[in-house]
Specification:
about 20% strand; alpha/beta; Alpha/beta knot; about 160 residues; 5 strands; 5-stranded parallel sheet; single chain
């Protein structure tokens, strides 16, 4: 089973790249996460909907075949860390590849949201893209730590 974090954005600030890499590096062997990025559409005065469609098309092209799609969207279901750990456990037990998708500045188009088996929200707040990526990586690590009874997570 492979976990993939698929995200729009190929040029994040150094702190975000380093933080994301650090949390993904800490993931246990059975829950390794591959980060795949796609270049965002150039803004160049295009309407937000056109940008969203273009970014989503690039994401759809990179989705691993047959993978469970988990979309990150502000309108998705909010979960606790413990609930995310339970989801992660189910994903791992299923043996099916899972792809978590973070859209670009304009979000995800319906073509991807409709394909997602699960839609999660990191927060109801609008988060900068770089922070959302770091937050997801950290929460995946925290969820894996909880499953492995590692003392990183405290309640």
């Amino acid at each position: 089973m492979r976990l993939t974090l698929l995200a729009v954005g190929d040029k994040l600030p150094g702190w975000a790249e380093e933080s994301t890499a650090e949390y993904l590096k800490r993931m246990p062997r059975e829950a390794r996460v591959e980060l795949v990025t796609v270049k965002p559409e150039k803004r160049a005065g295009q309407p937000a909907e056109a940008l969203k469609q273009a970014d989503t098309a690039r994401l759809l092209d990179k989705l691993p075949a047959g993978a469970r799609v988990v979309a990150l969207d502000e309108h998705g279901r909010q979960v606790t860390t413990k609930e995310l750990a339970e989801l992660l456990a189910r994903w791992l037990e299923s043996g099916r590849d899972t792809c978590l998708v973070i859209g670009g500045a304009d979000g995800l188009a319906p073509a991807l949201l409709d394909r997602a088996e699960t839609t999660l929200a990191l927060s109801r707040l609008t988060l900068p893209h770089a922070l959302a990526r770091v937050l997801l990586a950290e929460q995946l690590y925290r969820a894996a730590s909880l499953l492995n009874n590692h003392p990183y997570h405290r309640e």
